[in-house]
Design brief:
Layout lengths: L1 E6 L2 H17 L1 E6 L10 H6 L7 E2 L7 H19 L3 E5 L3 H12 L4 E4 L11 H12 L2 E4 L2 H9 L6 E3 L3 H14 L3 H4 L9 E4 L3 H4 L2 H12 L5 E4 L2 H10 L7 E4 L4 H10 L2 E4 L2 H10 L3 E3 L7 H5 L3 E3 L4 H10 L15 H11 L6
Parallel strand pairs: 1-2, 1-4, 2-3, 4-5, 5-6, 6-7, 8-9, 8-11, 9-10, 11-12, 12-13
Length: 356
Amino acid sequence: MKICSVVGARPQFIKAAPLSREIRKRFEEVLIHTGQHYDDSLSRVFFQEMDIPEPDYNLEIGSFSHGKQTGLMMIGIEEILGKEKPDMVIVYGDTNSTLAAALVAVKLHCPVGHVEAGLRSFNRAMPEEINRVLADRASDFLFCPTQTAVDNLEREGITRGCYMTGDVMYDALKYYRRRLDDDSNLLNEFDLAPGGYYLLTVHRAENTDNPENLRAIIETVAGLDMPVVFPVHPRTRNVMEKMGLELSGMIRPIDPVGYLQMMALESSAKKILTDSGGVQKEAYMLGVPCVTLRDETEWVETVEEGWNLLVGADRKAIIEAVETLDPPSERKDLFGDGCAAEKISRIIADSSVATL
């Protein structure tokens, strides 16, 4: 059986790492990289340190408007699928790469497996929300990371082909954290003490494309009571330069970092401030309080459990959350048992697709 896996952005590389290992134990895998994230710090470093196989194809699409980027991806993916003739296409998450691959595959009558299916922010202004909803509609296998995701699909009338597998990002964290624990130099590189700093990430369009939001976030965290480590996404950096928005005060900007360094920074931070869905999850998995710079989240369980507060770009709410967020001492296993990739591989192996 031949499976084409399609990735294109940093979170997808992390999700693909554990699943690719399991897929290759049973099947032939063809890895397609759309090039949605092309900067070495957001792409190549993840392949290197996570031992992800080199892509069989790299479309090198790069940055364009949503429509043009998705269209170019579809053209390239269609050509590859026509050549490879896979038995299944695997897509991850909610990016334009996800949508492009799902649409091409379903048009070619090739079964689609969606890893991280069923997530909903219920905010249709988010491009990611449109991508995930459409990818779910096009998919034959919906691999859900949480029970909430399963429930979301059921409310939309999608019950066939849904599987509660747990989250492959938890698989990745458990597997690679062994390397993290063995490397005490990761924090020393940035001259940081455990619990002596906050970690900030900002990259979503609702903040980077809104000057008022971005300015409010940056100016507020600059006035916090301890250093704020800020791995600056290339898109965010470009926006700030155009705005003339300088990073000062307690903010310590650094270049984007790889997976292991990011895990080290997250696990030792006093609190994390982010608009990233993946970082919200990782904060919960690592037991670090999270302040989410958005008005909604796909990971509602982390909010319900008291480990995550939604504050948007409100200056007063950000400060109050940093000062008062005090999660409970225990955390539920919201994201499975760390064996999601093996479960997904087994489901595919037991399916009728695998017998074709």
